Amino acid sequence: QVQLVESGGGLVQPGGSLRLSCAASGRILNFVAMVWHRRAPAKERELVATISGGGITSYADSVKGRFTISRPNANYAVYLQMNSLKPEDTAIYYCQLITKEGSYWGQGTHVTVSS
Questions:
Q1: What are the tens digits of pLDDT across the range 78-89?
Q2: Considering only CA atoms, which of 45, 37, 44 is closest in space to residue 95?
């Protein structure tokens, strides 16, 4: 059983920063990538950032230049460094782990950007 746990969410003022973490545990085979998604109130889920097993990254246009996805070495974990946060970044952020056999999701962590 693979489990993902996100942490690091909270309340931050506009212009501030947060770092989200996601750690996976369990039997993980044929790893492909880890992905951060978010769902803002009354909006569809949005793919925020992806990092492949080889370290290739990609970002939604809405977060390019402000967010950075990274993985610690030799661990099934992922960070999302979020800088210059805006009120429109308010959402529940979810971590996804993708393998060749399927994908796994965390429960999400809340991020609120407000003054």
A1: 999 999 999 999
A2: 37
